[in-house]
Amino acid sequence: MLTQHQAMPAIVPGDEKTFQRIREAKKFLLPARTCSASVTFKVSPGNSMDGFRWSEASSICFTYPYKLFVPRPSIRSLSPTRWIYPVVYGGGLVSGDNVCLILTCCKATSVLVTSQAFNKVYKAKANQITRQTNHFEIRQGALLSVLPDFIVCYAGANYSSSLKVYLGDELILREATILENFEDLTIADRMYQFEVFGILVLYGRSEVVRDLQGRVFTELSAREDFGIIPERENLFCTSLTADNVRVVRFICADSRAAYEKVDRLLSPLYKLYGGSPFYNKY
């Protein structure tokens, strides 16, 4: 996931008291407009690759101004992956918007959630918050890739975003990010010269995912050749949790550098996808 904020936010580790304070404050922030969308993907007769079969949307619904584009190629490619584009009419989220996407990937399906361009969050009115919630359910043998463009929050925006991925009843990973100014330290001060931060999560037991985890670890753990000055404007680090979840955190000076690096890290999957979701975006 790539996230870019014009206000230059930062990742701030907070304790439980901080999270509780934010939850209490948000009780008084009301959404003005609610819209939702849902889609379920099931396998259909067609090509298969790496254990995944051709995926079709068996049910889809949405409410204005939220819309889901699921392109259907006139000729089925060798790739079994279906691409889906969540779109908000008007070019962004306005004050009080509350959008929710529910997506289900049935057994052996491969689905890529991406976007046509970066989304914008506009200035919030008093006592209003803009919310975006995604609920994804991945069933046995399915692959879900969530690779949207970055989010741009304008000055004065009040934005809350949550992403929940269900793999049964077990909690695999919990990640929290707090973006706000503190009394003695602003967001811009904490970000220093960086403008983009992001988190890339890789998890799965299939061969294609495990192979990608190994490739990512190998590239990010390699040292520069002798005599080459280490990179200081674009920083990437990776860690592996107890449940074999590969988490890549990065911070970059601009979106172009972030796109280039993530594009290269995920390139082994593009044959399965049928192309790169970052093509011609940087």
TrEMBL record:
Q: Listed GO molecular functions?
A: nickel cation binding
Q: Does the keyword Chaperone apply?
A: yes
Superkingdom of the source? Answer: Eukaryota
Q: Which UniProt keywords apply?
A: Chaperone
On whether Ion transport is a keyword of this UniProt record, the answer is no
Q: Which Pfam families match?
A: UreD
Q: Which InterPro entries match?
A: UreD
Give the family from UniProt.
Answer: Belongs to the UreD family.
The entry's protein name is Urease accessory protein UreD
| Origin species | Varroa destructor
